[in-house]
């Protein structure tokens, strides 16, 4: 079985030896691949996406204030450091030409900050809008009524199930 997998970019993430690999996978099958072994033309660009393809983009949040201090963060809601902000912006630049329809993020502010900062770099300049589903009142307050506004927006769905382990 094979899957069509393209490397978007690889860069360092946070402190230590961890690496951040942004990989687009298309097709109905997926693979786990070490991004270091993927071919690259050195420019970080990729072929345009065909209309029948889908992409899954995974981005780890930028460096948090507790990452900087080498503390285990888990589900403690800690914001990004200035370095984490820069990492999120760089991640956004690396995915700026990939069409994005929806964003899923954990409930943690560091992940939401990373998503928002990354999307500010996107060439389509769509506005990421967090959808609130915690109550009927919250849903009505965050509802978008204008079709023009909907076309210029990307829904951001937060889910505690995506939070880091505790």
UniProtKB/TrEMBL annotation:
Substrate binds at residues 60-67, 73-74, 110. This is phosphoglycerate mutase (2,3-diphosphoglycerate-dependent). It holds the Pfam family His_Phos_1. Its EC number is 5.4.2.11. The lineage of its organism: Eukaryota, Viridiplantae, Streptophyta, Embryophyta, Tracheophyta. The keyword Transferase does not apply. Belongs to the phosphoglycerate mutase family. BPG-dependent PGAM subfamily. Transmembrane segments: none annotated. One of its GO terms (biological process) is glycolytic process. Residues 35-54 are annotated as: Disordered. InterPro entries: His_Pase_superF_clade-1 (IPR013078), His_PPase_superfam (IPR029033), PG/BPGM_mutase_AS (IPR001345), Phosphogly_mut1 (IPR005952).
């Amino acid at each position: 079985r094979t899957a069509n997998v393209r490397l978007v970019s690889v860069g360092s993430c946070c402190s230590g030896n961890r690496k951040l690999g942004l990989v687009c996978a298309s097709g109905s099958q997926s693979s786990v691949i070490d991004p270091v072994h993927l071919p690259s033309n050195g420019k970080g660009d990729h072929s345009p996406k065909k209309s029948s393809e889908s992409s899954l983009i995974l981005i780890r949040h930028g460096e948090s204030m507790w990452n900087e201090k080498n503390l285990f963060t888990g589900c403690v809601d800690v914001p990004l450091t200035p370095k984490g902000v820069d990492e999120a912006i760089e991640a956004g630049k690396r995915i700026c030409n990939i069409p994005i329809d929806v964003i899923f993020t954990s409930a943690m502010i560091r992940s939401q900050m990373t998503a928002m900062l990354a999307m500010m770099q996107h060439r389509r300049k769509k506005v990421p809008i967090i959808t609130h589903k915690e109550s009927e009142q919250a849903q009505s307050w965050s509802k978008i009524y204008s079709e023009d506004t909907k076309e210029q927006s990307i829904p951001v769905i937060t889910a505690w199930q995506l939070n880091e382990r505790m």
